[in-house]
């Protein structure tokens, strides 16, 4: 990854497309539980997602990640697809229970060997490996001991980070500690729509803090265990929260949700403290005594860049009654993932939607990037996830055409380009996702991949969006839109 700061993007090229800065990193991304399968092979033990998905009624159609796309056995084929597409980087996650089955003790070499083989193959093909330590697959043994609401889990995570760094630090030069800790804390322990499926707002707030602490301790472990020049980051699914109206009440709804969606993480990670208003908003639930002296200093470790995941904006208003959170787009549950936001209503923004029911709105990404630039000046950014689910299918000739996804990606890449022109230091973009896969509580019913997977056979078919994205990456230029606009 280039370390040179950038403030403006080049002018349009001769074709009318928009060129990205030299060295801009084009990649794609996946997560271990969503693609690997091999759930009980070579010593791997259950994660919270194994347990959750095997619990009747938790995942659509009773789907599990037991086989997923069988990437554990087909990884060489998947790397070949990436090489054919010409992407420069691959963001994958390491399965914690595959390399440290109980979340304690020595590493399991068979598990580490899988990631050694994967990264060696990536490097041989000229693809930069970008490793995420935690994409939601906590070893079930650690959940049985209390999970992320318990402080001890933060220290176990740091130990795991040290094991991964020792094994892979000579190959992997870019690391991410956590992926979307908001989902881990508030969907996993608040609304219960994600593993481990608990519904306790205090536990969710405790989990948020201990994820933050685990992040800070893991950054230190990675810095100690990898060569100089290794880049360390965290990935946050920052919510771009907008008010339904210009009223003061709706503005306060934005403030409340922004606090528990974004600033509860960016505060201690990037600015040295938890936001005072969010502590006040949640004071009826907890006194935050689980935050100990010195914790925010441990959390606020310097980062080489911030990973930003974005799919859709969040539209809110004040609500007269509690419980309006149910329409927030994060799954049906009578329990709120928004501590301190009980009297906030969520609304579907206008316009087209994806198969997830999420609004297609690239302006939210543009506005979000400018906000991060202003809040944390000087910190480089990477778009570590962006993409869309559509109802894809293979045609009679075996082709998969997905013009809706191409339109989605074009709009959002245009937003990234405009943000760079406005002075935002964005270094790269990772398409979510390389493959159709296990989409958490939705099972296999939603397809985010640039590559279609026929689940009964495992056959991979690059969609038209994959070929389109390959051209963008190869040329480092966003072509004019199909309607002739740039």
Textual characterization of the structure:
By secondary structure, the chain is of the alpha/beta class. It has a single domain (18-237, 299-312, 351-478), classed as Glycosidases (TIM Barrel, Alpha-Beta Barrel), CATH 3.20.20.80. The chain is 38% helix and 15% strand. The chain has helices spanning 32-35, 48-53, 71-85, 96-99, 109-124, 140-144, 151-168, 181-191, 201-225, 248-271, 276-281, 295-299, 362-375, 403-421, 464-475; strands at residues 18-19, 25-29, 89-93, 128-134, 174-179, 231-236, 241-243, 305-309, 314-318, 344-347, 381-386, 426-432, 451-454, 459-462, 477-478. Helix 3 runs parallel beside helix 5 (109-124) and helix 8 (181-191) packs antiparallel against helix 9 (201-225). The two termini are 27 Å apart. Substrate binds at residues 34, 135, 179, 311, 432, 439-440.
Q: Largest beta sheet, briefly?
A: 8 strands, parallel, barrel
Uncertain runs? none
Radius of gyration: 21 Å
The largest sheet has its strands arranged as 2-3-4-5-6-8-11-12
Number of strands: 15
CATH architecture assignment:
Alpha-Beta Barrel
Determine the N-to-C terminus distance: 27 Å
- Supply the CATH superfamily name: Glycosidases
What's the domain count? Answer: 1
Structural class: alpha/beta
* Average of pLDDT: 95
Global outline = globular
GO molecular function, one term: beta-glucosidase activity
Protein name: Beta-glucosidase
Keywords: Carbohydrate metabolism, Cellulose degradation, Glycosidase, Hydrolase, Polysaccharide degradation
InterPro entries: GH, GH_1_N_CS, Glyco_hydro_1, Glyco_hydro_1_beta-glucosidase
